[in-house]
């Protein structure tokens, strides 16, 4: 099976982002509908759709 390099997936659960020093790249772990956990930026919320790199399972960007 050949997967596309990018897939749009829905966030099933996401903890609230913690306010504070976010000068650098701050991430949190969310669970997508497949059950996999992915590190994403703090602004991602439950129900958001995100684009994931299927080669390594990393977050690329928030989908429109």
Largest sheet: 5 strands, antiparallel
Mean pLDDT: 92
- Assign the CATH class: Mainly Beta
**Number of E-type strands:** 5
> How many helical elements?
0
Query: How many structural domains are formed by the residues?
Result: 1
The low-pLDDT segments are: none
What structural class do the secondary elements suggest? Answer: mainly beta
CATH topology assignment? OB fold (Dihydrolipoamide Acetyltransferase, E2P)
Helicity, as a percent range = under 10%
Commentary on this structure:
- This protein is mainly beta.
- It has one domain: Nucleic acid-binding proteins (OB fold (Dihydrolipoamide Acetyltransferase, E2P), Beta Barrel).
- It contains no helices and 5 strands.
- It has strands spanning 6-13, 27-32, 37-41, 49-53, 58-62.
- The chain has a 5-stranded antiparallel sheet with strand order 3-2-1-4-5, with no helix packed on it.
- The termini are far apart.
- The model has no long low-confidence stretch (mean pLDDT 92).
């Amino acid at each position: 099976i050949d997967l596309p390099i990018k897939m749009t997936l829905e966030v099933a659960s996401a903890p609230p982002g913690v306010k504070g020093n976010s000068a650098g790249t701050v991430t949190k772990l969310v669970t997508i509908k497949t059950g996999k956990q992915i590190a994403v930026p703090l602004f991602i919320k439950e129900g958001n759709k995100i684009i994931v790199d299927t080669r390594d399972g990393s977050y690329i960007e928030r989908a429109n």
